[in-house]
Amino acid sequence: MRLSNTITTITGGGSDGWDLFVKARKMIAEGHHITELTIGEHDIKTDTRILEAMHAAALGGATGYAMVPGIEDLRQAVATRLTTRTGVITTPDNVLITAGGQAALFAAFRAALDAGDTALYINPYYATYPGTIRSVGGVPLAVTAEADNGFLPTFEALDVAAAGSGAKALLINSPNNPTGAVYDRETLEAIAAVAIKHDLIVISDEVYDTQVWEGEHISIRALEGMAERTLVVGSMSKSHAMTGSRVGWLVGPEAAMGHVLNLLTNTNYGVAGFTQRAALFALGLGEDFEAEIGAPFQRRRALAQKALEGQNAIRLSKPSGAMYLMLDIRATGLSGDDFADKLLMERAIAVMPGESFGSAAAGHVRIAMTIPDAPFEAAIKEIAAFGAALA
User: Fold this and answer.
1) Is the fold of 15-44+288-386 the same as that of 48-284?
2) 348: which residues sit within 8 A by CB, 6+ positions away?
3) What is the CATH number of domain 48-284?
4) Residue 12: which residues within 8 A CB-CB, separation 6 or more?
5) Spatial separation of the C-alpha atoms in residues 1 and 4, rounded to whole Å
6) Spatial distance between the Cα atoms of 205 and 226, rounded to a whole number of angstroms
């Protein structure tokens, strides 16, 4: 079968970054006990009340085709949420419901790029970012955010990349996966200045907006001159522990959303009505519930900070948000790939190599804070001892 160049080059001809995760899952399937700190999957399940709302909606008849833009009540709830949190007036006409944040990300790039157009993204990056750009025929170009600068992108690096590439779009993510960085106002103003200077569409992945441990979440859409050139990706997955429900959204200018709606009509043709009803119910639980979902990660961050005090082999990059930690393991003399593989084989602990998230994270590993507190703390102490022995 002769397949398209677009579909066969999504990974860029190399690894998709998930090799160690796949290896760990295979070992688990073979009966090995592995402490898994790899992916951003909550250790709690979706709240029973949300599942009951989903069940009631299904029994009540919300099992047929749902409106492709999303049910009106949910779009209004998302619009109200964003208006309240960002100060940017948002209406249902600015909101489209998608099959999770990943579908919103794909739709955003499909809206922003023609075949052959370049899109900038920040290195380190979530593993699907360059593949999503390639999947719409775009050319991904990484812009390095240095570890020594807290993994924050600079105006200078972005300006040079945009000028040299003729880029059409820029993808940012704050709070950030994998680094835990939260972009401050100065950083966002620098990004906005580059976007305006080079006429870039900014795609802002804000799925971790409820998980901020230091500083504050600022949506770049709220900065002057940015609402008309920004597409925001959101999701119920992280804020409400609804990863499997696949309910997300894309927010942007009304005219742009009208065109994206045509794409959604010809792809998913809407999101299941009963999951949308469950999402609507979940949003109604309010900020206290969202804080409850995020609280374990804030606790575990503190546990990790304490466990890593007073040793030099492993340095914790400042984790200001999200459910991840980035550990600098360069003092061990190993790459992130080698450290993670050795840790898995010798200590039965699975972490993600920094290299899975780009060259800027080389010599690091990413820890997902997604197991209960006691085994998490024990795993961090084990990793610290393992690093000290290597160093």
Assistant:
1) no
2) 32, 33, 34, 35
3) 3.40.640.10
4) 130, 131, 134, 140
5) 10
6) 15
pLDDT value at 176 more than 90: yes
Specify the residue for token string 């080389």: 362
Length of the chain: 391
Cut 0.85: pTM above it: yes
What is the secondary structure of 229-288 as a DSSP string?
GEEEEEESTTTTT-GGG--EEEE--HHHHHHHHHHHHTTT-S--HHHHHHHHHHHTTHHH
Q: Which amino acid is at 315?
A: R
Q: Where are the domains of the chain?
A: 15-44+288-386, 48-284
- CA-CA distance, 391 to 334, in Å (whole number)? 9
Q: Is 260 buried (19+), middle (13-18) or exposed (0-12) by CB count in 10 A?
A: buried
Looking at domain 15-44+288-386, which CATH architecture does it have?
Alpha-Beta Complex (3.90)
Let me know: does 327 contact 364? Beta carbons within 8 Å: yes
pLDDT at 352 over 90: yes
pLDDT tens per residue, range 3-32: 999 999 998 876 666 889 999 999 999 999
What does the alpha-carbon distance between residue 209 and residue 175 come to, in Å, rounded to a whole number?
6
Q: What is the pLDDT of residues 85-113, one digit of tens each?
A: 999 999 999 999 999 999 999 999 999 99
Tokens of 89: 């007036």
